[in-house]
Amino acid sequence: MIQFHKVSKVYPNGALALLKVDLHIPPVDFVFLVGPSGAGKSTLMKLIIRQELPSEGQVVVNGKNVARLRKSEIPLLRRKVGVIFQDFKLLPDRTVWENVAFALEVAEVSPREIRKRVPAILQLVGLEHKASALPGELSGGEQQRVSLARAVVHNPLVLLADEPTGNLDPATSLEIMELLERINLRGTTVVMATHNREIVDRMKKRVVALEGGRVVRDEQKGRYGR
Ligand SMILES: Nc1ncnc2c1ncn2[C@@H]1O[C@H](COP(=O)(O)OP(=O)(O)O)[C@@H](O)[C@H]1O
Ligand SMILES: [Mg+2]
Question: Is pTM beyond 0.70 here?
Fold first, then answer.
């Protein structure tokens, strides 16, 4: 599903973010990306959605070298790869329903289809009853569930989650993890960057550790630390 072939990334200011990363993530894998701040976790994700281009090497997503995509193909890639962040990034002046529907509107999905898909996905994340609330009226956990609904409403092949529990308390974090696991079981590959040791140790998934831009560990049913 995702392949990195000797991928290096140096930012224009000279910062080395990734160094000769080789990584293969098969379909429907669930991978934790761990490593200290600055290790390159967010950069790795940005390369998958072509928010950044590699300085060297190839990033292949669903069989395509993302650097070679035409401009017109980039929106398609971003529909195949949903993304959630620590700070939710919801539109504050739109309701829960509108936040999710917006993701479909920009993809030119028909209003009829939108009316079908939005309630189904809100149900999946347990927020049907909050459809007309504004993000500011929700708890952090609820906001993250809205952002998750928005990220998976296209049924993406891959879900990237960049420290999704970074602003949440432990109980709420576990609820989000249960949802990520459910989304994974529905067939979506999940890649999650995290500093949350407890979650990584509890979930017993593949763990890829980065340090200074290099993959220093890659273990099935891994733990947060060595
Ligand atoms: N847009 C950018 N411009 C310049 N340097 C950057 C940029 N984004 C990240 N970096 C640098 O690249 C390295 C990796 O950062 P990042 O991928 O954000 O790591 P992590 O997500 O693991 O904290 C760091 O040294 C960081 O300062
Ligand atoms: Mg980061």
Answer: yes
| Residue range 26-47+71-219, CATH number | 3.40.50.300
Residues with CB under 6 A from ligand 1: 11, 13, 15, 17, 35, 37-43
> Which atom of ligand 1 lies nearest, measured to the CA of 43?
17
Q: What is the pLDDT of residues 102-142, one digit of tens each?
A: 999 998 999 999 999 999 999 999 999 999 999 999 999 99
For residue 42, the ligand 1 atom closest to its alpha carbon is 21
**11, 19, 216: residue to mutate for ligand 1 pocket, most atoms within 8 A of CB:** 11
| Extents of the domains making up the chain | 26-47+71-219
Per-residue pLDDT of 52-79, as tens digits, reads 999 999 999 999 999 999 999 999 998 9
Nearest to 197 by CA among 160, 148, 163: 163
